[in-house]
What does this fold into?
Amino acid sequence: MSTEILINASSHEARAAVVENGVLQEVFLERASRRGLISNIYKGRVSRVLPGMQAAFIEIGMERTAFLHASDIFDPRHAETGIEPPRTENIRALVAEGNEILVQVVKDPLGTKGARLTTYITLPSRYLVYMPKGHGVGVSARVEDEKERDRLRTAVQTGLEPGENAGFIVRTAAEDAPPEALRSDMIYLRKLWEFIRQKGLRTQPGNLVHADLPLHLRILRDLLRPDVDKVLIDQASAHREMQEFAGAFMPDALSRIELYGEARPVFELHHVEEEIQKALDRKVLLKSGGYLIIDQTEAMTTIDVNTGAFVGHRNLEETIFRTNLESGVTIARQLRLRNLGGIIIIDFIDMEAPEHRRQVIQALEKALGSDHVKTNISSVSPLGLVEMTRKRTRESLEHLLCQPCPTCEGRGFVKTAETVCYEVFREILRQSRQFECRLLMVLAHQDVIERLLDEESSALGELELVTGKPIRLQTEALYTVDQYDVVLM
It folds into this structure.
């Protein structure tokens, strides 16, 4: 499989695209005006403790207070034994209002919710994740070869200092890495943690202590696996930074990091720009002629599968089966591309054959296997709906690039001109009965005014007779369809 990473960088925005076999699979976006907070470390102050929720709200200098659950608070007793003690029923035994605390962001603010925090700090490098308050050595589940897992674990354990109370996780990128590279990462991470710890002692609450790497360097650290053929970036300064970073941490990857200097924008390669625009649409077309409808709400994401123009070649059951099979692969890609998380409900077209249902679920699970974000298909409901979850750690593509429509306020619908006309009639009656005036002026959108002058003209004439007042109409160019005013003159 051919894999490329394209990076479009500027002073105000950085974007990265993962392209597999010429097809866009994933998009990352970071804007200077609102960089993601995940992995950032802050000196916080406890503002409220809520025993009923087993949680605390922490001031970290953001617009909204951040959320810290009791299960994410490090208990000092854990440091002595390496065994997690039974959790107390009262969070007040762990934190109190006014406490100063070093915390790390594990979830960006999403919607109306503040950031999610933990006191279990983790620091990633190229090959390892350091846990200053953890214990033991773990290996990523994506390293499947048992001998390689044992080799990596032994190499890290050998590098542990006597009496060291900290833990390490070996990342997928460490597969086949020499022991010297692992030990070099261990030394770097220990020094970094000591720097952060000392800076945390000097920093005032509500301030940033340590920020994660910028997007173009995070992409190298997290996504530049051996199967990635090349990384193209279109900004010279960012390219230099990537070369320096790779020279220090991944010298074998230097030859794969290239500066893109063509006149054609880098995101026009493989139609990336076009695919991003399509990823904002509700409707996703399938090659067979079927289509998906994807609706993202506050509570969950729903995906509806339809046969559309696909009529098949044999019978209805076979047509439905083929559409569902194709949609399973497409759904997995769309979840990655749109970065949809939380609860996801998929309404496949009903299939009568149990074997067909099994194969469709199997195809979906296989397609989700390439997703680096944790997914879980929990069950198929009695109504035939597939229920699944995908870990949500950052905003979806839609939330990053769009905002709710100011006209419909995110409902997806606006009132018809006919509905607004009848509201205007009721408002005219209400005002004419309550207040004295010479005439009434209706200010509304052009579509509403045209309907009042055309289809509703007789009703408007009757209303003038009932109220005994002339009614004048005026188009307001800045009004939306469901905005209007009735003014007394």
